Backbone:
């Protein structure tokens, strides 16, 4: 079994022996530093070309030390390195560090808590729109799907403050909480508003009675998937044409129609104007 800390200690010990051997051959044999390093390496690796050997007592003593201790240590480090590659420890470590670099570079991004069925739909639309986001998920099975889609993710519990901080909650613009447990969603909402009062919180509510509680806790928007699905199905039965029209406007796969939202501030020339007087159609063909 690969042990990261044991491997690091063994690697440091090997580097120490290399430095000691190089210094000893340089001092006792009068070699250049490069030749001393060369002799140390070929001794530890048991190559022994014979082109350079130790002649002094001190040099020969160091050769004995390298043969007795260095060869075994080198074999151990090499074996641990192969084990790490075979057990996928090194690739996973590199992938995790690369992932954290990507997360740390995010700013004004979106955090998605949970990658269940609802979270997967949210992530798919965010990726389609090119919105920078990171997913927090503690289920390793669901994480594997994220790796295939090349999505930034963080393995951890979103109810823990440190996990949210690692995901960049203090720099985030929006957090979308999709967990099926209303209690967890409520706790995350409170924590997010405590860490970043300006963040926009969009929370999922499984039970109707949780909606006002989430809003009182600071959620800007509370979505009930069951209520929305039921309402959509009823409207489809009653007004199918209207539902189809709205769906065409908001469907992410549509290429001919786009629905965008742009904020208009008090200083804008469009502020407080009627739509017919705004000249949006004439100036922007919208």
Residues:
């Amino acid at each position: 079994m690969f042990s990261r800390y044991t491997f690091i200690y063994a690697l440091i010990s090997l580097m120490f022996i290399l430095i000691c051997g190089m210094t000893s051959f340089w001092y006792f044999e009068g070699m250049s530093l490069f030749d001393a390093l060369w002799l140390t390496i070929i001794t530890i690796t048991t190559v022994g070309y014979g082109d350079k050997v130790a002649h002094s007592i001190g040099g020969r003593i160091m050769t004995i030390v390298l043969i007795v201790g260095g060869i075994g240590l080198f074999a151990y480090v090499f074996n641990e390195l192969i084990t790490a590659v075979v057990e996928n420890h090194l690739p996973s470590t590199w992938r995790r560090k690369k992932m954290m670099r990507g997360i740390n570079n995010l700013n004004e991004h979106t955090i998605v808590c949970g990658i269940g069925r609802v979270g997967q739909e949210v992530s798919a639309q965010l990726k389609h729109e090119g919105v920078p986001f990171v997913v927090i998920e503690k289920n390793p099975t669901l994480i594997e799907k994220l790796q295939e889609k090349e999505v930034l993710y963080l393995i951890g519990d979103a109810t823990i403050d440190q996990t949210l901080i690692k995901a960049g909650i203090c720099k985030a613009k929006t957090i979308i909480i999709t967990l099926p447990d209303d209690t967890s969603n409520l706790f995350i909402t409170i924590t997010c508003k405590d860490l970043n009062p300006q963040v926009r919180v969009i929370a999922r509510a499984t039970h109707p009675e949780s909606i006002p509680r989430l809003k009182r806790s600071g959620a800007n928007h509370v979505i009930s998937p069951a209520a929305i699905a039921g309402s959509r199905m009823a409207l489809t039965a009653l007004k199918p044409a209207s539902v189809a029209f709205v769906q065409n406007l908001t469907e992410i796969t549509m290429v001919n129609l786009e629905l965008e939202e742009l904020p208009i501030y008090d200083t804008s020339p469009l502020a407080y104007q009627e739509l017919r007087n705004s000249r949006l159609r004439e100036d922007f063909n919208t």
Notes: Residues 230-284 form one domain. Residues 57-86 form the longest helix (30 residues). The radius of gyration is 31 Å.
